[in-house]
Amino acid sequence: MLKKLAYLLICLFLTSAYSNAQTVDEIINKSIKALGGLEAYQNLKSIYVNAEVNSMGFTIPISITQKGKSFFIEQSLMGQVMKIGYDGTDGWMINPMSGSSEPQKIDSTQLEQFRQQNDITKNPVLKFKEEGSNFELLGIEKVEDVKAYKIKSISKENDEKILFINSENYLPIKLVSLKGEETGEVLLKDYKDIGGMKMFHLIEGKGQGQNITFKFNEIKVNPEIDDTIFKMPSK
Question: What is the pTM of this model?
Answer without folding.
Answer: 0.81
